[in-house]
Every structure is written in structure tokens, then in C-alpha cells.
Amino acid sequence: MQESQLARTRRARRVDRLLTERYPDARCELNFRNPLELLIATVLSAQTTDVRVNATTPEVFDRWPDAAAMAGADVRDLEDVLQPVGFYRAKAQAVVGIGTALVERFGGQVPRRMEDLVTLPGVGRKTANVVLGNAFGVPGIAVDTHVQRLSQRLGYTTSEDPVVIEAELGALLERREWTMASHRLIFHGRRTCFARRPACGACPVAALCPSAGIGETDPVKAAAMLKG
Q1: Inter-residue contact 172 to 189 (CB < 8 Å)
Q2: Is pTM, for the whole model, over 0.90?
Q3: Where along this sequence does the record place binding of [4Fe-4S] cluster (predicted)?
């Protein structure tokens, strides 16, 4: 039987409440002290882990602490520091480009509007929503690989387009919950609902998930798979 929008909304909000209980410490796992640091860390996090980014950014922010310093950075020096995060040449260019754009167009400050953020080099809606939600308190849904995978498994969307997923997930959840709901889905994706083989038998939302059973269903075995 096809699920109505109302039923899907109620289910999505119930799932989010259960994930809140499971992950009370859900948060952005990138280390930052200000909007610029979060913006750069999020750009650097593409195709790598937050742990690796957090190990790399202290030197980045020590040597290039503001937009002007980033704009004037020697790209080769940046590349040397960014090698551990992968795609370091493109990311070094993005850091310099972001610094330059911030200095030239935004007075050296990270803008607070989506339409401005996405004009920066290497910044898409996902990165912009991370910055808006965690640095400025503006609710946003950051659709990374975990949010996309879980939104599909939970039956919230059938789309592969992050922009469509953002809109469809946003329609199911209260706006004030968008940022934290994203974190809870990411936590769940990293710790329980793995890409290759989810730990279904230890999942707090299995009873509400149309994909339940695609992974390990034995509760003991599934519990042993959990991370974090």
C-alpha cells in the first residue's frame, strides 16, 4: 500500500525522535572555532573522513588564520599541508579561491545567506547548509552520502539528486529540526546503518524502516557491528 504524505511525515518525525534518543550527542564532528574555519573544514572533508580533516586543519588555521591570509597563500605550501586529506591540489585552489572571494566580495567575512555561500569556489548547497546550521543557527539539511543513503532506505525519497532529497526531507521534518536531524542521520549512517551491510538487528528504527532486513538481523551479531 502506498504511504500517504501525512503518514510518511509522522513516520519521519517518529524516526527522528528515536534517533535523538539513540544519539543524544549528535553534532557536527568537524572541529571549528568560527564560521571561516567551519567553511574550510567542510570543503576539505569531501572524499575523506572528519578525523583526517581535524588532524590537518590546526596547521592550516595556524598558518592562514583569516580570509586575507588564505587569499595570499602560496598554493604549493597549502598543497603540502593538505596532502593527507586527498585531492589536495583542487582543495588548495579552493581555499585560496574562497579567501580571495571573501576578501573581494564580502569584506573578509563568511556570508550568512545560501545564495552568497554557493558562489564561493568549491561550495555547494551541502557545505552551505553545514555552515548556516552550525555557525549561524540557520536551519538547513546537509545532504551528504549518509543522509542520501538513509533517506532512500527509510523511504523518504527515491531521488538521487541531493537538491531534491533536501527538499523532500525538509517537507517531512519541522524546520527547526533540520540541522540536528541531519546530524542524527549522519551519526546513524556512520555507526549503525552502514553502506555495505547495515546492522538492522541493532537498529532503533528498524520497525519503521521499509529496508529493515537488508543487513545483519541477528541482534547479537548486529550489536557487535556497531561503531562509536
Answers
A1: no
A2: yes
A3: 193, 200, 203, 209
- Which amino acid is it at 209? C
Instruction: Note whether 120 and 105 are within 8 A (CB).
Output: no
Q: Please check whether residue 119 is in contact with residue 101, taking contact to mean a CB–CB distance below 8 angstroms.
A: yes
Per the residue annotation, which of 77, 91, 116, 144 is the catalytic one? 144
Contact 144, 165 (CB under 8 A): no
Give yes or no: 126 in active site.
yes
Place of cell 523532500: 168
pLDDT, one tens digit per residue, over 125-184 is: 999 999 999 999 999 999 999 999 999 999 999 999 999 999 999 999 999 999 999 999
Which run of H or E residues covers position 205?
none
91 assigned to active site: no
Q: Of residues 50, 74, 80, 126, which has the active-site annotation?
A: 126
Residue 188's closest CA among 138, 130, 148? Answer: 148
Q: Other C-beta atoms within 10 Å of 76: how many?
A: 9
Binding residues: 193, 200, 203, 209
Calculate ∠ Cα 9-10-15, nearest 5°. 95
- The whole-angstrom separation of Cα 62 and Cα 66 is 9
Reduced to 3 states (helix: H, G, I; strand: E, B; else coil), residue 128 is: helix
- Give every CB contact of residue 65 below 8 A, 6+ residues apart in sequence: none
- How many whole angstroms separate alpha carbon 6 and alpha carbon 8? 5
